[in-house]
Design brief:
By secondary structure, the chain is an alpha+beta fold. It has 2 domains: 27-76, no CATH class; 80-164, OB fold (Dihydrolipoamide Acetyltransferase, E2P) (Beta Barrel), CATH 2.40.50. The chain has helices at residues 26-48, 50-78, 161-164, and strands spanning 80-94, 100-109, 115-122, 131-137, 144-146.
C-alpha cells in the first residue's frame, strides 16, 4: 500500500491564540441582561401602563432573591464543612395561608473550637435541645445554614445518623 504523500498541515497553537473563558464574557452577559430587562420593560410601560411595570419589577425582585439564595447555597457547598448544631431556641408561628413555620436558633463549634450561632426558619425543623446538621464555610463559619433549609439542593441525612444518636 503506498504511503500518503500529501498530508494536511496543522498550524501550531501559539500563546496569542489562547481560549477565552466564561469570565471574559460576563460583561456582555450583564449588558444583555440589562437590555433584556429595560427594553421589554419600556415597551410594556408604553403599551400596558404602570401595572405591567410593577408586576415585572416584583418578578425581578423574586428572581433576585432566589438567585442570591442559590449562590449562597453553592458557596456553602463548595467550601463546605458539615457539623451538628444544637438548637438553643425554637419558636412556632402560624402561617396566614394555614400551617406553621418554625424559627430556630442554633449553635455549633467551628474548627478552631470557637462557638458560632445561626438562625433560620422552615416548615420542618427539630425542637429545642435537639441536633441539627449544619453546613458552613471553612474560611468563615459564621456563614452557615441548616441542611434542612436548602432550597436548591437535596441533602440526605443517612451519614448523620451516627452523629445524632
Amino acid at each position: 500500500m503506498p504511503t500518503l504523500q500529501i498530508q494536511p498541515g496543522s498550524n501550531p497553537v501559539t500563546a496569542g491564540a489562547a481560549a477565552r473563558g466564561a469570565a471574559d464574557f460576563r460583561p456582555l452577559v450583564d449588558l444583555a441582561f440589562v437590555a433584556g430587562v429595560l427594553i421589554p420593560g419600556g415597551i410594556a410601560l408604553a403599551e400596558h401602563g404602570i401595572a405591567t411595570w410593577v408586576c415585572a419589577a416584583i418578578g425581578i425582585y423574586v428572581a433576585g432573591v432566589e438567585i442570591r439564595r442559590l449562590l449562597e447555597e453553592r458557596a456553602l457547598l463548595a467550601g463546605r464543612a458539615t457539623t451538628i448544631a444544637t438548637i438553643t431556641h425554637w419558636e412556632k408561628s402560624e402561617l396566614s395561608e394555614g400551617g406553621y413555620d418554625y424559627s430556630v436558633q442554633y449553635r455549633f463549634l467551628g474548627p478552631s473550637g470557637k462557638e458560632y450561632v445561626g438562625k433560620d426558619s422552615s416548615q420542618e425543623l427539630p425542637h429545642q435541645g435537639e441536633m441539627l446538621p449544619v453546613s458552613y464555610l471553612r474560611a468563615d463559619p459564621s456563614q452557615n445554614l441548616p441542611l434542612a433549609t436548602f432550597w436548591f439542593y437535596r441533602v440526605t441525612y443517612t451519614g448523620f445518623a451516627g452523629w445524632m444518636d
